[in-house]
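Final report, Chapter 2: Outcomes

The project's central promise was a pipeline that accepts a single protein chain and returns its three-dimensional structure in a standardized token representation, suitable for archiving and comparison. That pipeline is now operational. To close this chapter, we reproduce one record exactly as it appears in the project archive, with the input sequence first and the structure output second.
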Amino acid sequence: MDYSRILVFGAHPDDELTMAPTMAMLAERGVEVYICISTNGSEGYPKQEWKDEIVSLRAQEQADADAIIGTRERICIGADDMGLTNDKATFKEFIRVVRQVRPDVVFTHGPHDMHRDHLNTHALSIEAVWQAANPVSMELGEQWRTPYIFYYKGVADRQPDIVLDVRNWAHVRPLTQATQRTQLTLWNTTDEKLQAEANRLRNSEAPYTNTFWFYDRTHLSYLPGLGE
């Protein structure tokens, strides 16, 4: 992966951590890592007493994860959890993000999921990458054509196209999970367990992979098999 700038779309705070080792690897190599999260985490409270402060808690958790990954910038669309809608105003915000970041590659959710926010993030991000390249809605920024789109989760009908060995950054996954303190109950884990797993992975020589799938309809300008 030879990129200067990547954009990772996630539906909720922490969805993007699936590929945290890859992001950390690229950041260490000088790639600018941008993350765009669709929602504010407003429903992610396993304790009722956290309800009124969960959005601010989750914002701090994201900042803590970014410090570990080496994120250049995190952008928040700001929809409520379970409230991300594929409407015109939201779609234009996705276009704005693509044109603002001007990425070499976009990573996003795949099409197979049960959660409405995941499905809408998939649809909005894919269409935004396409529309950002067109001469429309120019108040959203200068046109930008993103050459590649990959899914990093949410694909159930085929094997991964890329299996990337990220063993030297494997420990980043549990370390970033540990920053998501409000979610540990949901994940049935503890900070102690995640720190222990991070230490184990630091000292392991075993392969550790992140997997990715190509988006099949990325800017084909010719009929395959008939040349460009």
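Archive annotation: The domain at 5-214 is CATH 3.40.50.10320 (Rossmann fold).
This record, like all others produced under the grant, will remain available to the consortium after the project formally closes.
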